[in-house]
Amino acid sequence: DQQVKQNSPSLSVQEGRISILNCDYTNSMFDYFLWYKKYPAEGPTFLISISSIKDKNEDGRFTVFLNKSAKHLSLHIVPSQPGDSAVYFCAASATQGGSEKLVFGKGTKLTVNP
Amino acid sequence: ETGVTQSPTHLIKTRGQQVTLRCSSQSGHNTVSWYQQALGQGPQFIFQYYREEENGRGNFPPRFSGLQFPNYSSELNVNALELDDSALYLCASSLKRGRSTDTQYFGPGTRLTVL
Predict the structure, then answer these.
(1) Which of A80, A105, B66, B99 is the most exposed place for a label (fewest CB within 10 A)?
(2) Any idea what DSSP says for residue A53?
């Protein structure tokens, strides 16, 4: 049972355009959401996060939107750059007796074409 | 500030053997989490250690065990290796203060291949 779903395995956009990566979740107990970026042969790199009490968080070119009623979040990258090409993972945090394990989606491979 | 490091980078074992993977936490972090990432999947939570004690566990059998040391470095041990244990093993460190935990920062991972 996949609690965090990224339904698009891949996305291709032109440099300078907007990239929108989507993520859906099923567990209403999730209270913190994160996006990680992963290059080949490297570990995931933290990108941006959002608490469930907010609906938007912005950091430079990256904005995360959270729609709790729809159990949906999205990551917007504007403008997209070739260096953004990577696999993007959506993760949700579930407090479990004090530990906060991350539940990950399967990832979306973003390709930004020059 | 030193980031999260893991060793070894790659490892090849045969079925039935035992393996130990190591992780050094980011400076100032007191919590370490271990994840398994199979090919084409997202990372899956194995367990978390906070101040040398297990602080949460995912759906992994007891042959997956861990340790956290006083300097907050950590080990993941897997006994009786199976072919399906072939994966990238990631550790992530974070700072836990009270009931909240800060963002988890990942190491580069150890690629384990079981033949």
Answers:
(1) B99
(2) T
